[in-house]
Amino acid sequence: MKKIYTVTVDGVQHQYPEGTPYQDIAGEVQSAYSNDILLVERDGRLCELGKQLDRDCTLKMITIQDKPGMQTYERSAIFLMLKAFYDIVGSEHIERICVEYSLSHALFITAQGAFLLDQSLLEQVESRMKELVSQALPIQKHSIPTDDAIAMFQKRRLYDKAKLLSCRISSKVNYYSLEDFSDYFYGYMVPNTKYIKCFHLELFDCGFILRLPDSDHPEQLAPFHPSIKVFQTLYDDTKKSEALKISNVADLNEAICRGEATQIILAHEAMMEKKIGDIAGSIAQRKDVRFVMIAGPSSSGKTTFSHRLSTQLMACGLHAHAIATDNYFVNRDKTPRDEKGQYDFESLAAMDVEQFNLDMSRLLRGETVELPRFNFKKGIREYNGDTLTLGPKDVLVIEGIHCLNDVFSYSLPKESKFKIYISCLTTLNVDDHNRIPTTDARLLRRIERDARTRGYSASATIRMWPSVRQGEEANIFPFQDSADVVFNSALIYEIALLKPYIEPLLFAVPKDSPEYLETKRLLKFLSYFLPLPADHVPATSLTREFIGGGCYQI
């Protein structure tokens, strides 16, 4: 006789027999939710809807409006697209399909093989996707020995997955199947194709995009307004990684195993240094530039970049002076607050825009200006006799969240400003079908730096991250295409480098913490990487801003 378990949903207790699929439970409460339930969170652990009840528990329903739900939808849509593409083209004609990176609420994908990639083909693939959705076909999860999974993917010519799994120590591997098509994904799936309702394929540059729904309005596609400059930077850096023969985590792991880590580190650092030198050269050629304005999202390495750029400017015969716009915060009692009543330090209203423009204009006229320094403990701006006068070969290297927004530097002539957008734009993916979000790399950087320099726990950093991201969306990303140059601060080896620093911090997050779900996801993500020692990472490296040991006084 089956046991009867008590399941609490939204504060209401229900009775279900042992073995009841979570999908059935979700179906009974679906009417209370405006969007499809895609997963359940059982006592702090995510579970797919196909999993069966085996204990008393409390369930939280996860929809596309929750981060894990959106990730599950995206992953399932990729799986559906791959299945349809293979159905239309035929596996014998496909060499490689690679989900490269996110681009304005869509995924940029490249496809290689004996076929013509045009809009007509994409329309056929999309039509096949819709046909599969209408059939509500089950997406089935399987667990097999790792060696068998490696053999299976080698037979299907998915060598990136076979190589990735060869560095896994677990004896079993989970993979998913949709009819006769099988693939490996890191993360959860919806139970069947009927859940994947909103998508669109269209040509873009040398590949195509898979457009996804707006999480706030899942019935419609999210707007697609890509930053062409960011895309071009991502594309160029992907080609540079391929030149190093590092296209995914499996390639990086193999290189580490072969003892080639030092060469990879030095080669990528050299590529980055050349890029910084090229930027300095462009600035030096524009004789009227006096202000180098640098902005980028959190943990992009802005501070180290500004130091390295200053060195390269000196090599070009210019004298660089660093200015942090944080010193132009208004006093704490005038700082605006957000809708939660918290100080909104990322708002433009938190800056003394008038004083900044007054000081910069006076410097541009050749006057001597006493520069402020913000006392964060007291919450006030102070003056300590730090004066500056610009000579004919002097430039100011100004770093801050609003530096790309011309409203912040409204009084400065356009020709006097050289604007740089910097971000950690990860091009390395787990494998061809499992991408690494650029926000993950920045979050890992932030967790380590916060722990090392501020004494924050990983929980605290993860808890703050959504508000940080919200500020970036409002104050940085809208202005990225106004930059003269986009600089990618991501290093191909850095996640392997960060792994031994980050893992102990993540393992310290309590399992009953609200941040544990995100912690577990990050730990799973890190498990794909072999660790890389920091011994041969240069003291000038951007990664030193986060792990320590750098030569700059940051």
How are the secondary structure elements laid out?
Layout: E1 4-9, E2 12-17, H1 22-29, E3 37-42, E4 45-48, E5 57-63, H2 67-89, E6 94-102, E7 106-113, H3 119-134, E8 140-145, H4 146-155, H5 159-165, E9 172-178, E10 181-183, E11 200-204, E12 207-211, E13 213-214, E14 217-221, H6 228-243, H7 249-257, H8 261-285, E15 291-295, H9 302-315, E16 319-324, H10 353-364, E17 369-375, E18 380-388, E19 394-399, E20 417-423, H11 438-454, H12 458-475, E21 485-488, H13 494-507, H14 516-526, H15 544-547
Parallel strand pairs: 1-5, 15-19, 15-20, 16-19, 20-21
Antiparallel strand pairs: 1-2, 3-4, 3-5, 6-7, 7-12, 8-9, 9-10, 11-12, 13-14, 17-18
Helix pairs in contact: 2-3, 4-5, 5-7, 8-9, 11-12, 11-13, 13-14
Helix proportion range? 25-40%
Q: Which structural class matches the secondary elements?
A: alpha/beta
> How many β-strand stretches?
21
Shape: globular
Give me the side-by-side strand order of the main sheet: 2-1-5-3-4
What ranges have pLDDT less than 50 throughout 5 or more consecutive residues?
A: none
Tell me, rounded to a whole number, the average pLDDT.
Answer: 94
SS summary, helix count: 15
Radius of gyration: 25 Å
Main sheet properties: 5 strands, mixed
Instruction: Please indicate the percent range of residues in DSSP E strands (runs of 2 or more).
Output: 15-25%
Distance between the termini: 66 Å
